[in-house]
Every structure is written in structure tokens, then in C-alpha cells.
Amino acid sequence: MTVPCVAVARERGEAVRARLAEADVLDGDHQIVVDDGTIYLPVTDPAGLPDRLADRVVERDVAARDRQRTPADVLGFEPSLERLGDIVIVDEDDPSRARAIADAVMASDLSCTTVLDRASPIEGAHRVREWDVLAGEDTETVHREYGHAFALDVARVYFSPRLATERHRVTTQVSAGECVVDMFAGVGPYAIPMADRGADVVACDVNEVAVAYLRENAARNGVEDRVTTVVGDVRATTDAYADTADRLVMNLPHSADDFLETAVSLASDECVLHYYDIQHDADPFGPGRRAIQEAAGSTYDVSVETERVVRSYAPHEENVCLDVRLTRR
Asked: Residues 40-69: pLDDT tens digits?
């Protein structure tokens, strides 16, 4: 069977295998193959690879290992599951179905300590939700993404593993020496990879718990010397960083437009803005373009470099990102 594999020199095999295992992308269902001095390590998700291994992916015909028992084997159907570290998240309106899925997860060979079901929408300034704990009890975990580790408590902070590919797209644009302001940083999924690429990052969030995890995660990933944390509403706490940002991250899609005046005040003479929005699919990018242009006024020329649909948010609503360059006139 042909599967994606990371191909490296045989002598690097164990070190790379350990990195893939740490990133939780090593495919245990297929065998590792050695051929003519090259080792082929099967992976489950090429998009989740640590940066330096992403260009080593090849398709290779490898034999399957004896399969582990999956929740689908127990249930007789494939449930919709989301992984966040060693927490498994289901999203079921039917409590009995949710319970059956949780029991199947715990009976399977899936590495898991807790199963949660969403019990409310994301609410409040801290963007958290309530959860039904179906198995286990600990809502704290360590989630690994593209070679970085993030400790978090899903009941106390906002974090979406579904945005991993989008975060990676943005963070890989960063160059060493940039000054970045992450205006809604959470536990650091943008800030920490950007700092790891050599940027100096000012990471802001109104949620004190999220900022505490952010500081822990900066140390965990060895970038604490390049991350400055700020607790509070970015509109009231960042005057000291006016005119300094070479890059701004605005991942607050329901209300980012309320913060554009502050974003413009933070921008340096040339600044890239990653602006997230949720709009009707009839015109998903127009409202953001117009809001940014209005905030920039006569101070900056505005050039939209990328318009990207990140994901479908709801019927006829799109979660989008605009990558915009602001150049001072």
C-alpha cells in the first residue's frame, strides 16, 4: 500500500523517528522500510510534520502492521473525533450516542485519557466553552503541532486544533529579526512558532490563564527570551509598542474589526497584517478589505496579498483570512 513517508539517511533514522513520535505523526499502522541506505518512516499527517522534515515526504509502498483496535471497530461505524493532546473530543447532540462513542474510544487502542463532548458554544471575552466529561476527568493536556508543544486546559482557554494548517501557513512566512504583535495570542500557537523562527514577539491576551500557559509554553519550547507577554485588552495595554510591528496577527474573527485602529497604531512603516474574519459566503472578503482600508486612512497604502477561506464556519458563513501589507505613505 502506498503511504506518505519521511525519507532520510539510515543513520538519521532513530533521531527522526523520535521526532515524528513526539509530534504524534508517526504512522504505527505501517512498517518502517530500509532500502539502499535510506529509511522510510510512514507518517499519518504530512501537514503536521516538524518544519525541517516537510520537504522529505515521499510516497512509498510499505506493508501494513497488525492493526490496532479503533473506536470504529468497537462501534461498527466511523465516529467524528477530534484529538487535542491525549484528549478526544466528540460533538454529539444525542447524549446516548456520545456516551457510546466515549466508551468505544476508551475500549480501543487509541491513546487517550479523557473524552469530552461540547456542551455549549464558545462564549465570552475568553472564548471558552462548557464541556461534558464522558470519560476521565482531566481537561488539561499537552498538544503537539508542527514540532511545538502547547500545554493548555481546554475548559479555561481557547484552542482549536482544526486551525493547525492555517497557523503553519502564517508562521512559516516569518523571518528572523521581525517584530511581531500577536493581538489575541491565547496559549501561543502563533507566537511560539514565530519566536522559534527568530522573531521578537509581543503576545497579548485578555485571559490571564491563557497568558500563564503561554509563558509556560514559551519556556517549554525554548523561546522565552523572544516572547513578551501582555495581559489585558490590547487596545489599552500596548501603547509602548506603537509603530513597531513588522507583522500583526488578528485571530479574533467575530470582532477583529473593533481592534483595527489599534492594529494600525502598532504597525511600523511596512507591516503585514493577518486579519481573520467570519462573513457570509456571498462576499467573504469585502467587509474585511473595506474595514482595513478605512482604518488605514491616508496613513498607509493597503495591498491585499492573500484572500483565503480557512474553513466553513456555519451554513453560508466562511472563516477567512486576509494577508494585507500596510506601507506608510
From this structure: 999 998 888 887 888 899 999 988 877 778
280-298 exposure pattern, b = at least 16 Cβ within 10 A, e = fewer: eeeebbeebbebbeebbee
Q: Taking a C-beta distance cutoff of 8 angstroms, is the pair 29, 68 a contact?
A: yes
Give CA–CA dist 260/280, Å, rounded: 20
Q: Which of 195, 200, 203, 147 is nearest to 171 (CA)?
A: 195
Q: Which residues face 135 on adjacent strands?
A: 115
Number of other CB atoms surrounding residue 322 within 10 Å: 22
For residues 214 and 147, is the Cβ–Cβ distance under 8 A? no
- Sign, CA dihedral 251-253-259-261, equals positive
Q: Which DSSP letter does residue 196 get?
A: H
Cα gap 314→312, rounded to integer Å = 6
- Distance CA(295)–CA(263), nearest Å, equals 9
